[in-house]
User: Which sequence fits this backbone?
């Protein structure tokens, strides 16, 4: 097996979203915009500018802007080796490109390409296999953000708790406890009312209407060590969002930790 990063990996997809190219650009190429549908983001808005995505409490990804052509093209590189905890020369940078193409009827197509070079190790192909299912739900967030909250700044809400269960069992427990339904269903989530916008594998996206408007994603995933994590990630909008998050984030955390999940193999 090669010890230099010459094995190519590539992920390509496109999504249609509402809005003008300028509105889409604001959402995908500014720190405020990215943080309102993706991960907490720091971004210097020019070629050569630094990029940082906060992935978790103690994890992040660093990079820099390599292409800047508003409102059409954004490209950036992330330090894939550092992100994976590998030697600096073990992997190429991880390159991502967004292309925005205006469509008739007031929408745009965003074409997304991610690519990199590795050594051909098994974990690399496994990581790329999980990249698409892990990333794609965010683009439903983008579509919802541009449809209902364009240009607005989100107050994020995040909570997660690990349980000694598999993700499927944990997800069924969460789904039933919250009374989630199919796309279009009206739901009440711990005092917040909204509409189901997307149902994925062990993941549901809800657009909240009251008491504070926003987007809330509920999901479960395997940790790979016999445990699974139940999580909530929300983006809240309006002047009341900060107070709401200050109150509700610890309440969601407590709720997730208190889930009664059936034991394994029973």
Assistant:
């Amino acid at each position: 097996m090669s010890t230099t990063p010459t094995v190519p990996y590539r992920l390509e997809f496109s999504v249609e979203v509402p809005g003008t190219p300028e509105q889409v650009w604001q959402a995908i190429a500014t720190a405020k915009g990215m943080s309102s549908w993706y991960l907490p983001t720091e971004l210097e808005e020019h070629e050569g500018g630094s990029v940082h995505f906060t992935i978790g409490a103690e994890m992040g990804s660093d990079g820099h802007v390599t292409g800047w052509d508003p409102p059409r093209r954004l490209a950036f590189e992330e330090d894939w080796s550092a992100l994976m905890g590998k030697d600096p020369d073990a992997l190429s940078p991880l390159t991502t490109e967004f292309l925005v193409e205006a469509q008739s009827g007031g929408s745009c197509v965003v074409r997304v390409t991610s690519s990199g070079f590795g050594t051909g190790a098994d974990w690399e192909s496994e990581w790329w296999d999980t990249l698409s299912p892990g990333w794609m739900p965010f683009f439903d967030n983008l579509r919802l953000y541009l449809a209902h909250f364009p240009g607005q700044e989100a107050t994020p809400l995040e909570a997660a708790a690990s349980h000694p269960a598999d993700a499927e069992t944990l997800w069924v427990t969460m789904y039933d406890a919250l009374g989630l339904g199919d796309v279009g269903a009206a739901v009440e989530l711990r005092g917040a009312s909204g509409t189901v916008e997307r149902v994925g594998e062990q993941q549901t996206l809800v657009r909240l209407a009251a008491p504070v408007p926003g987007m809330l994603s509920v999901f479960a995933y395997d940790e790979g060590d016999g445990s699974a994590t139940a999580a909530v990630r929300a983006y809240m909008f309006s002047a009341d969002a900060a107070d709401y998050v200050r109150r509700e984030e610890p309440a969601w955390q407590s709720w997730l930790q208190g889930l009664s999940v059936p034991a394994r193999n029973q």
